[in-house]
Design brief:
mainly beta; Porin; twelve-stranded antiparallel β-barrel; 1 helix; globular
């Protein structure tokens, strides 16, 4: 009975992560009855703005509606859908997700299918004992055919380093968590710096 309870707790932790690193999908998902809201703004000339609202639809499916605006372009709205085949279990096995990015085919990269595999390893040290490192690999298929790779590395339980190659260019950033459900983000994207916040709540 104790081993079954422990396994159940591990599985719950495995599905607690979001389905996106910076832009690439991961092998995790947004939990059922959970909503994640994120906004990012470019700081130099306010040319770029990105907004996301993601939520768990079922135990296996999640969706994220997004808007994006770039210099000289109107605001574009679309959504991503993903299915989490299996959640990652720390130190045991990877999580696997697949789905469709930009379902309405209006973003810069266009509609594309994806397969994402995420492993959670560690616990790096006693300071970050609750936050395992995450490594994601996968690929896009469609308007973009390219591999992607990314990592989330915790410095402490409140500071996380993010890095990814999304098939076209590198992005990196810091996620600072003053509260468990609130993240303050600085993202370095193609010579631009975007800052913003990510808020998660359950209903």
């Amino acid at each position: 009975m104790r081993s079954i309870t422990s396994l159940a707790l591990i599985l719950v932790c495995g599905v607690a992560s979001a389905d996106r690193l910076i832009t690439i999908p991961t092998g995790s998902k947004i939990r059922l009855n959970t909503v994640r809201v994120e906004s990012l703004w470019e700081q130099s000339r306010s040319r770029t703005q990105k907004n996301y609202v993601g939520f768990g639809v079922t135990d296996g499916i999640d969706m994220e509606v997004f808007t994006e605006k770039y210099e000289g372009k109107n605001i574009r709205t679309s959504f991503d859908v993903s299915y989490n085949y299996i959640p990652p279990i720390v130190g045991i096995g990877p999580g696997i997700s697949f789905g469709i990015k930009d379902f309405l085919n209006v973003s810069r990269d266009g509609r594309r299918m994806f397969l994402a595999i995420t492993t959670k390893e560690g616990y790096a040290d006693s300071v970050t004992a609750q936050i395992p490192a995450e490594i994601t690999i996968g690929g896009y298929f469609g308007s973009v055919n390219a591999p992607f790779i990314g990592a989330m590395l915790p410095f402490t339980d409140r500071v996380r380093f993010l890095a990814e190659f999304n098939g076209k260019h590198l992005e990196a950033g810091l996620d600072i968590r003053p509260l468990r459900n609130l993240g303050l983000r600085a993202i370095f994207d193609n010579k631009d710096v975007l800052v913003g916040a990510q808020f998660t709540f359950r209903y």
